[in-house]
């Protein structure tokens, strides 16, 4: 190990990727909180008549609005997966070759089981993270489809009713609502683990993982740069 | 069996109804079918000229609540005329004939009016164990249904049993109770509800009689006129929902004030029916108006989505009392513990790595005094 390291500053996350990330985080936060409230409205003071308050209607409005932001944000990100830089590319999420799977096992061994090893250095997503995000996209899709299936009957627009087929497919709206509500907990678990792992990588590797999603820059030792 | 050339008008005149009565009936019928009074002339024309198609009403695995509902239609004249003059040629619970006589009547109608009669089905059909759970005259329900469906001009599935299976189909569905639409290869008009609203049933029969075709159906085969709106959206308690004013427990002050029953498990937001508009028993009331939440009896699978008095159903596979939230919260707590354990473990097992980096970094950092 050379005693003096030269680090290179690398532009990893382009602006659309960062914007997607934070808009997504905001939308999910709003959706999770309002969604939980819709499923389990808390008790407010009952001093006023219905004509003077509309808080539950507002909560639902915020939920639907955030749902639209979430959806279109996701569509833009999908597009960017085909035109963005190599770190944003769609193939970073799908382990298509043997090497990718070997990398995933390596990440599991070093970061989760915490054995020793130099391990693969990924400048963008590591292969395991990429795979988890790929699974997450499917859950995003499921949540979007079930959400719009429930929202459809309240909307007269064609767009609001594009997911109407989900209800007969799943049996009834009660089943759709049950799973739409249950999936809220996926986001809670995901956020918990995701934020922890960002801090973990930043702490152990010292490559500016946390700030990279703000400024877009990561740092990498020059002797490790090969791809 | 109806005689040929026997229109509804002719039958009514024979029974002593006046022309005025007939016109009044046509207006009722038009209104009941959701057409408005303007259509009464067209309806009168149809009922004057058209032969009444014979109607067969089959009963399988059911409780007869659909029939009970139907005979209590709130327009007495419509119900009377439909029952007296509809040419209801076979209906186990209403016909006078019995045994071979009744079966012969049905067979004759199916032969003479092949492709013309209307088939009304009440109840689900068992398919397990070769259908032995429901046998009529020595034949299985499935056999009887398929024979009758083959020559039917229109098939109506009365109630949730015939539409989706209802309580007999509740897990684990011991008899293999199956909806009509899954057994016949023809379009079926689903009129779900446990029972369906009497006036809705009458309106659908009237619609078929008047136009000789099916009413407009939605993706689940339900007539759009009556099943396109949610009970929730037509409920008079809806403003309390938007205001977040809920009944917290039955018999609390909020219940007396008539607040929204959402937290008491009301299924109005998931249920498509005309209850809040048409109401029951001649427009007297409907469950929510009587202070009880909607059970969602016109929805597919409502019987398995319990408990009825809780907003969130039980989560499958985790016991009766566990909702998605209890399962999620437990998993969340487990994840938090896992993350904390991992953080501790990181500081122990990766100590050397982190330590080396820090030493290296300190070594590499130019001392501020040296720079000066």
What is shown here, in short?
The complex is a heterodimer of chains A (227) and B (372). Chain A has helices spanning 15-39, 55-83, 98-112, 127-151, 166-170, 173-182, 184-205, 209-215, and strands spanning 7-11, 217-221.
Features:
heterodimer, A: 227 residues, mainly alpha, two-stranded antiparallel sheet, 61% helix, B: 372 residues, alpha/beta, Rossmann fold, Cytochrome-c3 Hydrogenase, Chain A, domain 2, 3 domains, five-stranded parallel sheet, 9 strands, 9% strand, elongated
Structure characterization notes:
- The complex is a heterodimer of chains A (227) and B (372).
- Helices cover 61% and strands 4% of the residues of chain A.
- Chain A is mainly alpha-helical and 227 residues long.
- Chain A has a two-stranded antiparallel ribbon with strand order 1-2.
- Chain A starts with 6 loop residues before the first strand and ends in a 6-residue tail after the last strand.
- The model of chain A has no long low-confidence stretch (mean pLDDT 87).
- The mean pLDDT of chain B is 86.
- Chain B is elongated, with a radius of gyration of 30 Å.
- Chain B has 17 helices and nine strands.
- With 372 residues, chain B is an alpha/beta fold.
- In chain B, the strands form three sheets. In chain B, strands 2-1-3-7-9 form a five-stranded parallel beta sheet, with helices on both faces. A two-stranded antiparallel ribbon of chain B has the order 4-8.
- Chain B starts with 7 loop residues before the first helix and ends with a helix.
- In chain B, helix 2 crosses helix 3 (40-49) and helix 2 crosses helix 9 (198-211).
- Chain B has three domains: 8-227, Rossmann fold; 231-304, Irregular (Cytochrome-c3 Hydrogenase, Chain A, domain 2), CATH 4.10.480; 324-371.
- Chain B is 42% helix and 9% strand.
- At the A-B interface, helix 2, helix 6 and helix 7 of A face helix 12, helix 15 and helix 16 of B.
